[in-house]
Amino acid sequence: MKQTVFLFLTLTVASCMPRNISESSSCPPIYPDYIGVTVPDGIAPLTFKMADSRKFRVRTRQDGDTLWTTVTAWEKGASKAVRYAPFPIYISHDPIDPYIAYRLIEPGYENWQDMGIYQRELATYKETPVVTNQVNNRGCVNCHTFSSGNPDKFLIHARGKGGGTLFVDDDKVKLVNLTAVGAKKQGVYPFWHPDGRYVAFASCKTYQEFFISGTQPIEVFDLTSDIILMDTATDSTWCVPGLSEKDVLETFPTWSPDGNTLYCCCAQTDSVAHDDWSRNHYCLKAISFRDGEFTTEPRTIWQQDSASISFPRINGQWLLFTRSAYGTFPIWHREADLYLLNLTDGKIRAVDELNSDDTESYHSWSSEGRWVLFSSRRDDGRYTRLYIAHFDGEGHFGKPFMLPQKKPEHNRYRLKSYNVPDFIKGKVRNRHNEFKKLFQ
Amino acid sequence: MKKKTVQKFLQTPACKYGRIWNYLIPILLTAAVAIFTYYRQTFTLLRQEEIGLFLNTPDYYRTISMNPLPVSHIIGGFIVQFFGIHPLGTILFTTGISAAYLISLGIMKKIGAPLEVICTALACTVWWFTARASSPATGTAIILISALFLALMTLLKRGGTKKRVRIWDTAAAAVLIAATTIMLSRDRDIKEVEKWSKIEFAAVHRNWDYLLKYATPSESLKDVEVVPWALLAHNVKGELKDEFGRWPVTEEFGLDYGTNLSYRSALFGAVLYRELGVWNESIHQTFQSGSYLPHCTSFRTLRMLIEENYAAGDSLMVVKYCDVLEKSTLHKNYIKHYREHPCVHRDSDRFIENGSAPHIVFTKNQMDTMLQLGRAGIESPMAMERYFFYYQLRSGITDDEISERSEYHQ
Fold first, then answer.
1. Which of A168, A217, B33, B50 is the most buried (most CB within 10 A)?
2. What interface predicted TM-score (ipTM) does this complex get?
3. Rounded to whole angstroms, how far apart are CA atoms B93 and B123?
4. Which run of H or of E encompasses B267?
5. In chain B, what residues touch A212 (CB-CB under 8 Å)?
6. Contact B355/A110, CB-based, under 8 Å?
7. B330 to chain A, minimum CA–CA distance in Å?
8. Cα(A173)–Cα(B14) distance, integer angstroms
9. Which CATH class is domain A99-438?
């Protein structure tokens, strides 16, 4: 709380503010939009500026867990200033993981130069690399996945020369070529079983097509995809029975928090085979899992003829997913929004508190389930930015806030997109040299 | 620097041939570098600005800090912005080489061996490497390290010996300067870079006549890669039909770059699709070209993205890239135009397309793509002409005819 108060004091610009002040009943136009957001106690100071770049002064007043902020703004050299109506920032004491991890990458879709997975401490602005593609000769690094948010247990894919999947477990680091073991299939979209032993992957043959006209530039789709399971104790992999059918595309595996159910998204292959992606609608399926074995046939949880589901993520009875008009790659779908499914009664609703006119896509729950981190293109339509929102446990979210930066313009100037954001419970230690040795 | 100080630094004891003799070596060096740079590396410097980047943003500094010589990269990046104003670029470049001479002279004085010939040789070496480098960062690093060395020696306060500049010193230095100038003039790499800088610059700035001045059929015999650029220029000018037969089309390079992937092939794609009015692909190819550059982008990339997004009606992206370029030093006027004349935002159709629009996509078959443009509502005479020549190349011209054509040109 102290930090949050401190932030606004530091923002107070003690420059020559005009004495002639008029009152406005509206809230100030600020960037990023922090008006009415709910933030975790101890988050890095929420710096902002006037959206129209005017000079401004901030006054704050604390009322319980609400911080009332009054902004007075004026043009440089003007004789009159405008005092806007105070706006609230709600402070929540619900715990949030101290770090988040994400990949930073240009929003192109074929080549790259610098790419890396980074971690950010939420209480500060400090961003440090977990791994960059300097370790694997400028290849691709992706699909970072932590075992229940554990910073000492995670995996990362590294493509390119000598590539494979890096498994980190405390001091042990190993590079496994998934195509050389067990089912001999490559794996993407990994998800750790809560017990930390098994990892479910989708194994996809992914293609992309580029649209000649229109404002959606690209469609990414799978021609085949199956779910495979890896036992990290034995480094063996095998296809999940019922989720590796030839005429069905299965992807985005997700474990329930108790580890007894594996969810995934499935679609028929015929629509893709006939180049009619708009009929390519993924549904949500689930299969039971006990003691290393799948015990039931897959059952359909949710299906719609006019929509597709991606990235199911479960928090108790709540399943948050991305819904798009079709397909399996919602980041290029402007209509993609977040939806919440109540697993106890099957009710679904669009999460309007989080959604915007632009793409909302990859998301993850904090380990305590009270915060959700998601990516959105609402800022400019192309560069994905991160937002965090509070969850009340009853199916409602607070207004999301953009990941705060030391300078509010940082998100405008950054020419990289945030990719696959995830909460982590602590700082990942620097293993640059260890990783580099594996690729030599 | 006051006159007396200058005299002292340049070996003040007056030479028997007159005081001007003391200045002759630096004058010769400066003149040679300035003239050579101005006339033989005009577009090389312009290109360095276009593929360079300097932004006062945290991400820029972070990327720079990953380089082995971050300070020289920052200074080099800062300097390179001014290369876009050609005379200024020449002045800066020449100043750098002259500084290398003066610094080495200072070091020589400190160690008591004021040998102008060695200083000239060192300066010529810096010139040689900097003229051939893709950015001034290496030259900046050499000059910075030398200057640091000189500063350290100055701190030691070790006195130097004073001696007159002898005639043979000047003569030997003049020979060195002349030899370096001749070697640089004859250097194939420098000529090649200058030629491609001209072609790229002309294509990006739509100066098709200028492009065709350098991408000629005789040049294509030495470097077949100029063919796609020249054919594109003819295509844009609507004279492809008349000019096509003059060019040696190979499997690799014809109307396009085939399967070649490089910075230049991506830039070609960006320019081609810009001229065709296919903004999705033009933007995509511009991104692709950026991915070959150290910061994944450059001044040229950002300016092209602004222009392409402006034409495509994506006002949000125009504003974003303007914001980014505003963090450089010399783009205030460039941005002003886009700020004062915002584009008409074309945005509302995006949602509808996702569900209902026909999927008209690029294929790896360029001929087919030209045909698809019409289906996608892009009526382009350029595309029609290209389609015709793709068709002709694939069905009308046999391998024998292609080889005959090549032989004819040779």
1. B33
2. 0.89
3. 12
4. helix B263-276
5. 278, 280-281, 360-362, 369, 372-373, 376, 378
6. no
7. 17
8. 71
9. mainly beta
